[in-house]
Write a structure and sequence with these properties.
Order of helices and strands: HHHHHHHHHHHHHHHHHHHHH
Number of strands: 0
Helix content: over 70%
Number of helices: 21
Distance between the termini: 123 Å
Largest sheet: none
CATH architecture of one domain: Alpha Horseshoe
CATH superfamily of one domain: Tetratricopeptide repeat domain
Mean pLDDT: 88
Radius of gyration: 31 Å
Shape: elongated
Length: 425
Amino acid sequence: MFQSTIKKQIEIFTSRGNEYLAQAVKSGQKDAYAKAIQEFVKSYKFALLLNSKDGMEQICAFNLGAAHIAGGDTARGINVLHTVLEHETFVKTPSILPNSQSEKGDVYFNLAIGYEKIGDIEKASKFYQLALLAYGNNEKNQQKAAETNLKLANIYNKQNELSEARKHFLHASDIYQKLQDTENMVLALICQANAAVSDSTVSREECIRLLGSCCKKSAALKHANLQGKILCEVGLMYATLSCLNRALLCFEKSIRLCNKNTNPRRRAIALQNSGAILNSMGFYGESIPRHSESAQMHGLLGNRNAQGQSFCNLAFAQSQLQMYEEASESYLHALQAFRDTEDKQGQWQCHEGLGSIAFNSGSLDKAVEHFTFAVSIQTQKDSLESRKRIVGKLTNAIEMRADKKIVSPKLQLAIEENKEKNESM
């Protein structure tokens, strides 16, 4: 009678704890985590009174430890979970209880999360690996196995162990495919492809094959905005591989899929990237409408720096078409945006562009002024190549200005008259 009453109380406290925990996860409110922990403490204290070997004490300890980690008291949560590991019930049985939340894999998984939070990556990796072994091929644990593979893959990715990262991203993708979870399957594939593109040991052909697979499988996604987001990411990776036509195709599809009302941010990014690719391919006339719309949308969204980038790309396209007045205005818009966001690199790029326009228009004093300012605000983070380029332009402008000042007005007039006479002969 006594034990049945205690078990009933444990069930009540545990149920309340789970409700508060779900609420906390959804809302992020700390007081909800505190309430969940209070309930789990009560259930744990009652479980200690049972002094039984059915695993109830370990279940309650697990709930309490996991709640502490989720709520931010990570060190305490890790300590509580280690008491679960050390208990004889945990050591002797394949699982604490048949309940899926009580399996060894969950204990290992939550310990791994805890260690990852405090920056002990070595122990985090160890416990994620143990979680994978515990989950095994059991069908009911495959969702958790996929999540664990993703966790491990991200750790390896951050440590630049790209081969291991790719392996676990692929495992996660395969599991999601078996679970018919198309969305997560494609997202895992994208991560795998990104790790491959970043890995110098993977051939360009293999990277292109992976990206092609991502494009093909993304077509099965039900949500157009998500498909547009994925195509934009694939496009960026194609651009990294200098596959500009494929990159452009992805960005253009992304523009069509991302509605400006339901997903304006993603559409603005796709427009910006499409315009940048068109610029690099020399299709300046086609790029101008994309830069203009991108700048407008980024402005409405309050993305000031991205708006500056779009204006800068627009200015470059206009200058290449000798639309110097329009280009100057666009560069000035970009310059103000970069000043607002304290983007030094963006600022010197604008001054370089304005300097080139002034030089081509014959305004050598302005060209010298802009090139000088561009060089003066460059930092050590900027490439030596860019500095040499601007210094070269500045030198040309100074030399040409000096040459013009040496020639007297009378001599200049005589040169022009002689030129006209030669042309008429």
